[in-house]
């Protein structure tokens, strides 16, 4: 009779019969989870504590800096520059597509959001290559 009530409570509990202390597999599984968690926590702490080497900046030296090619850069490349957000980057690309390639770095000032101060700040990071331009019609003779 006592066994019947135990079976009924197990059936009502989703079929699980609790029987004394946990099995050996359960204890091993708990230890594996605990040790794994400790290993992951140790790795995480060691990665968080690592400090990157500071960048060395020599004033006036633009060698080795990130460069943006004015006539082919994507908006992602433009946004890497200080003072150029995504809106300005999209304006630069739209202007380039609508008005053709920039002839000089100073031509960037034709874009809304690029003034003399911004241009001088990003100038060390800019390079320009002007694509071959084909002139049609009769060239003027000199």
What does this structure look like?
This protein is mainly α and 142 residues long. The chain contains 5 helices and 2 strands; from the N terminus they run H-H-E-H-H-H-E. It has helices at residues 2-12, 24-49, 75-78, 86-99, 116-122, and strands spanning 68-69, 126-127. It has a two-stranded parallel ribbon with strand order 1-2. It is rod-shaped and about 80 Å long. The termini are far apart.
Q: Work out the number of β strands.
A: 2
Strand content range:
under 5%
Number of helix segments? 5
Q: Please provide the ordered H/E string of secondary-structure elements.
A: HHEHHHE
Radius of gyration: 34 Å
The span between the termini is: 119 Å
Helix content: 40-55%
| Low-confidence parts | 134-142
Query: What is the overall silhouette?
Result: rod-shaped
Largest sheet: 2 strands, parallel
Q: What is the strand arrangement across the widest sheet?
A: 1-2
Return the average pLDDT rounded to an integer.
78
Structural class category:
mainly alpha
């Amino acid at each position: 009779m006592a066994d019947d009530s135990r079976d009924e409570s197990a059936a009502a509990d989703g079929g699980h019969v609790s029987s004394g202390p946990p099995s050996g597999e359960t204890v091993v599984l708990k230890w594996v989870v605990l040790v794994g968690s400790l290993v992951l926590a140790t790795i995480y702490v060691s990665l968080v504590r690592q400090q990157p080497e500071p960048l060395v900046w020599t004033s006036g030296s633009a060698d080795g800096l990130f460069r943006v090619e004015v006539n082919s850069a994507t908006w992602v490349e433009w946004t890497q520059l200080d003072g150029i957000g995504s809106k300005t980057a999209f304006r630069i690309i739209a202007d380039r597509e609508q008005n053709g390639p920039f002839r000089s770095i100073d031509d960037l000032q034709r874009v809304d959001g690029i003034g003399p101060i911004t241009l001088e700040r990003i100038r060390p990071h800019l390079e320009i290559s002007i694509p071959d331009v084909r002139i049609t019609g009769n060239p003027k003779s000199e």
